[in-house]
Amino acid sequence: MANDEIAKRYASAIYNIAKSSDSINEVREVLNILMENYEEEEEFRKILEDPLKKFPEKEKFLEKSFNHVTKEALGIVKYIVRKQRLSLVSDIKEYFLKLYYEENNKLPITAIFAKELSETQREQLIKKLENKYGKKIVLNLKVDKEIIGGGILKIGNEVINGSIKNQIEEIKKNF
């Protein structure tokens, strides 16, 4: 079975567990922390992927690392490690979020602008996007001074590039 399918199955099972225990937000957060630690902390990754370490030893390490989360959320982390699916945690988290957004009629959008938006601009953008897509918008704002002005919207696989930098590149191509 392809890793993509495995990640989808794990995400679905984890989502159902989180939903039944009314801990979707906490599980989402713990998956995010697990993913960040796995991708960014070499020592964390070494300990949990060491084939010479038995699971009880890894379990103690996880209990120390995740001592601030509920028993259910910790159980999910332990399950992912026990089943040796840490390398899929990023995909599992992504599919988990897709399930959450679909069920709650939400649409995640990344918006990149040359400078921070004011609160009024942010609210207007969200309102326009909600009217256009008919869903509650989860807006992730980023600043990239290199785009000069305008903005870039990333909606799933669609990219709407209205940046001045992009417009300049298009003009250069035409000359």
SS content category = alpha+beta
> Order of strands across the biggest sheet?
2-1-3-4
Number of strands: 4
CATH topology of the largest domain: Peroxidase, domain 1
Task: Tell me which CATH architecture of the largest domain applies here.
Answer: Orthogonal Bundle
Overall 3D geometry?
A: elongated
Pfam families: OSCP
Subcellular location: Cell membrane; Membrane
Keywords: ATP synthesis, Cell membrane, CF(1), Hydrogen ion transport, Hydrolase, Ion transport, Membrane, Transport
Membrane topology: Peripheral membrane protein
What can be said about this structure in brief?
This protein has 175 residues and is an alpha+beta fold. The chain has eight helices and four strands; from the N terminus they run ααααααβαβββα. The longest helix has 18 residues, at 3-20.
Can you give keywords for this protein?
14% strand; 2 domains; Glutaredoxin; alpha+beta; hydrolase; 4-stranded mixed beta sheet; Peroxidase, domain 1; 175 residues; ATP synthesis; ATP_synth_OSCP/delta_N_sf; elongated; ATP synthase subunit delta; single chain
